[in-house]
Design a protein that fits this description.
This protein is of the alpha+beta class. It is built from four helices and seven strands. It has helices spanning about 65-70, 75-80, 95-100, 110-145, and strands at about 20, 25-30, 40, 45-50, 50-55, 175-180, 195-200. The strands form three sheets. It has a three-stranded antiparallel β-sheet, with helices on one face. Strands 1-4 form a two-stranded antiparallel sheet. It has a two-stranded antiparallel ribbon with strand order 6-7. A hairpin with an 8-residue loop joins strand 2 and strand 3.
């Protein structure tokens, strides 16, 4: 999908004189939070808050490579070192300090190879994150449907072959408990810390 086909809501004020212009592949960073990884490669042409600084890549530079490099823990520590301010609330990495920092980088063709590999991981992570979110929602639905609702004796959803009403039991009928103190062997009914040991049947598989 092309960037221009994606609709974006404009939350900026009418007076745009103080906003920063950003173009595709520019790197924008928040000078107050650069040491926390507040930077990214722009995928769109647009405007940014004055709180951001825009870095324009030169020829033969893959901005995505440097976008990933800026996120590395070692690099974040360097950004913190070069930030000015007495406390973390006031640390500020302005461009005059940033431009003095040394960066290791290979030739642009290798930069692109590295960034393309890392991007492929991002795609996989995003795809699996969507699967994980879906599984969590499915589990939540099963938890609601596979246990009886208030006043009911059977759940809404059951496995085939099960039709009996669920029995209401007290916890003492399904679990033993003991005092949490390691030196006491006997079960204590007045212990401050209770460890439940659920009784269950084990099925041998071999």
């Amino acid at each position: 999908m092309e960037a221009k086909s994606i609709k974006r809501k404009d939350n900026s004020s009418r007076d745009k004189s103080n906003y920063k212009q950003v173009k595709i592949n520019d790197i924008a960073y928040n000078s107050m939070r650069m040491w926390q990884g507040a930077s990214g490669v722009s995928q769109f042409d647009g405007i940014l808050s004055p709180a951001y600084t825009v870095l324009i890549p030169q020829v033969n530079v893959d901005s995505r490579f440097f976008g990933y490099s800026f996120k590395r823990r070692k690099q974040l520590n360097v950004f913190q070192k070069y930030s000015q301010g007495l406390t973390s609330d006031t640390w500020n990495l302005k461009y005059p300090q940033l431009k003095q920092i040394d960066f290791f980088a290979p030739i642009v063709s290798e930069q692109k190879k590295i960034s393309e590999l890392l991007i492929s991981f991002d795609y996989l992570i995003a795809a699996n994150q969507r699967k994980l979110d879906l599984l969590k929602e499915q589990k939540k639905g099963y938890l609601q449907k596979m246990f009886p609702k208030n006043g009911a004796k059977v759940p809404e959803l059951r496995f085939a072959g099960f039709a009996d009403d669920w029995e209401q039991r007290k916890l003492i009928e399904v679990a033993d408990y003991r005092n949490g103190k390691a030196h006491e062997k006997d079960i204590s009914e007045n212990g401050d810390y209770i460890v439940a040991q659920f009784i269950h049947k084990r099925t041998r598989m071999f």
